[in-house]
Amino acid sequence: MSDAPEVRLLLVSLSESFSEFWPAAAREAGAILQGWQPDEEAIPSDTAVIVVSAGGREDDLPTLLPRLAAPSDIPVIVAAALPSHRLAARVIAAGAADYFVLPADRDGLHDAVVAAVDRRRAAIARARLGHLEAQAHTFRYIVGDSPALKAALERAARVLPHGDATVLVTGETGTGKELLARALHYGGPRAGAPFVELNCAALPAPLLESELFGHERGAFTDARTAKPGLFEVADGGTLFCDEIHQLAPDLQAKLLRALELKTVRRLGATASRTFDVRIVAASNADLASEVRAGRLREDLYYRLNVVTLHLPPLRERGDDVVLLAGFFVRKFAEQYHLPEPALTPDTRLALLAHSWPGNVRELRNTIERAVLLSPPGTLAVDELSPSRVPAAMGRLPFPAPLAEIQRAAAHAMLEATQGNRSEAARRLGISRARLQRLLRHGGGPASPDDTE
Questions:
Q1: What is the Cα–Cα distance from 423 to 409, expressed in whole angstroms?
Q2: Rounded to whole angstroms, how far apart are CA atoms 190 and 277?
Q3: Confidence (pLDDT) at 173
Q4: How far is CA 64 from CA 18, 32, 57, 381, in A?
Q5: Residues with Cβ < 8 Å from 227, sequence gap 6 or more?
Q6: Topology of 394-450 in CATH?
Q7: Which of 29, 134, 240, 310 is least enclosed by beta carbons within 10 angstroms?
Q8: Mean pLDDT of 77-102
Q9: Alpha helix (H) ranges present in 160-264?
Q10: pTM for the structure as a whole
Q11: Cα–Cα distance for residue pair 449/250, rounded to 1 Å
């Protein structure tokens, strides 16, 4: 008995029986479904190849083939009795991978089917192996033993097998929300499909809408070609929407509609497209407060808040700081081909003395810098000093014009948050747009919309 994955061969016979020409070796691929009609039965997921028998209806092939709606990774092979190059070209244009004339091309058909079956078996085997490996390493890079972190990971493990459950990941900037989202994807049933990221604060609303839903050619001035949206790209997998509270109000309504109907319509299109995507949203804000303030739709909040996983800040995780530091020390010593330094009592005290407002991201960057700048094989306590970040605030010009002070404060806060503009805006108590203006040219007078 072979351990090769089971796959099936799908035979679509447009009229009379095709069995007299069917190569015997192909039967080993699995069940042959006689009389299958494309508009009555879905294509099984374990299908390796679809063979369409024309059976005297060669002229109907260009019209009937699109009805199959076969996935792009399942080849459609046509077997006919009419030796016509023009018809073969039309059939290929209609979506077929190849066109064989029987009985003359029987050997070619046999070889094409066997090759397709072998490819499908190999793909399924790779997917299974990848899934097993992903499950084994699901939470491998989420380091820590603190009760708060363990509670979050236990909840994550319970939702892990349920690939359709919507998950909301909350926590301060730098706590590892994207890392947990990836673990949910690659450790779950959707591991073989795409994991697609979207930062809702990274693009202005018009570009974000095109990014999410896609557009058709000519939908707007620069739309020279059609482009699928991220829902289409992530089909079968996971769409990770970070900083979901930053989504523009009109896009919140469209996102809610897409999630409810499981369909999207590209900009400029007249027809909707269905999708099968698991949503993992993340935010460093208090979403209940965002709802009360009118910045987040209440119905969207409840739609996303099915399973909530909260990642605690590093200051609430006790000795996890030391565990994480050891993990990063090993990682960067290996990456930069340096001797691995030990964590001495002094370095441990220095790590535990800092509150790490930038959480795991700040710790990671600090350890990387310390590994690079300390004498080889050591970890200098001075390089772990938290005084480096607040020192930027001491460089504010004073006395100076107010616009210059504001611009310097914006740059200093951006440095303190390691370039995270959303977090810098939050700490300053202003909007991201206001921060952008301050960084460019000092900003000018604040408006009521500039505060968070």
A1: 14
A2: 9
A3: 92
A4: 18, 20, 10, 72
A5: 210, 214, 215, 266
A6: Arc Repressor Mutant, subunit A (1.10.10)
A7: 310
A8: 88
A9: 177-186, 205-213, 230-233, 249-261
A10: 0.59
A11: 17
